[in-house]
Task: structure prediction
Amino acid sequence: MKNIILITKREYLTQVKKKSFIILTILAPLLMIGFGVLVAFMFKANESEYHFNVIDKSGIFTKQLKSTKDITYTFVPESTERALTSTLKEMEGIDGLLIIPKVQNQNFNSLETSTKLLTNKKIGMDTKSSINSDLSDILKKEKIKQLGLSETQIVDLNSGFKITTQNIAENNKPDNDMAFGIKTGLSMVLVYATFMFIIIYGVRVMRSVLEEKNNRVVEIIISSVKPFELMMGKIIGVTLVALTQFIIWIGMFVTSALFLNTGFMAMQQNIPAEASETMNKMDIQQIIGQVSHTLLEMNFGLIIAVFIVFFLCGYIFYSSMYAAIGSAVDNETETQQFTLFAIMPLMLGMYGSFTIFNNPDGPLGFWLSIIPFTSPVAMVARIPFGVPMWQILLSISLLIASTLFMVFVAAKIYRIGILMYGNKATAKELWKWIRTK
Result:
């Protein structure tokens, strides 16, 4: 045990004292936020404003078809159709010509099938859908008017239906779309964080083992310590490095949420009762405050505890695999045939977790969060939505038992493979190593 602690301490201090670790730990959350902002900016930068001339032969759309921030409609006389059609290709500042035919005997079907949009450039599907939607809304009103309904009745007819849900299993706590969206977002963050860190730090363990093996340093090391102690020291040391980063990031996240929540509460107190409806039209800063407020209403103690337990156990589970792989091969090229077995279950759990967002209590979500190979990512995907305690305890018990078994198997492979050189390990040999006493 003393040797394991010494190796763990050395592995941990070697990693955390690096400038790259300190810089990455502090800047990683900012880089992730910046990356998200950059992606949003890229989508925004690729948007274009379109200008279309409109010839409305039906007379229905002239006063009702309104321009938007992305699409500008300019109505032109019917007599200019031939000239505009022939010169559209050379026109600058005009992206197309929308030609709406006449309506014969209130037959709107011919209107829907004969309307044409001539363009002089490629336009996206979103733009086409927007034009279709604008025309369809106006045409729908005209069809309803034919039934003898007034404008007020039409507005009332189009009013949406919103149901209020209340979860009696959670002390009659009201549920809403924003809260569900926030839980989904948090769930995705936890899933990706667990998945990426297990792979990144697991591969780091494998490369560390492989490097020491190729440099023949391991021959000197195991003259003083047992192979099992060396393997566990490396795994636990790197685990503590990852845990240190997580604790710092969680602290930064909770501090930010508390700060924004304080601003949100102050804002709520200053809003008059008659102006409460304006909460639906908050700016981005107020929305961020409300998101933070919603997050802090969750059982964050349980979420963080479950996340840390499943991350640690899942990491040790898969790092044992990576350590065994690193000891069984001679170069990184040979690791590819074995790492697939470690990555596939994790990928299955991650992609299977996408179904959990829609149905957290479904049978697939249940089994993925119970089976040890997938539970490290599947359970953290479910936990923001609420999971019965017996399922959490069952999943943890199975994962811990499987982790101990995986460490035992990996140690069997490690103690022989770490001293094998120039011999490509096969599945048959690995099985033989595992059975060796």
In short: The chain has 16 helices and six strands. The longest strand covers residues 50-56. Residues 264-282 have pLDDT under 50 and may be disordered. Residues 53 and 95 are 8 Å apart (CA to CA).
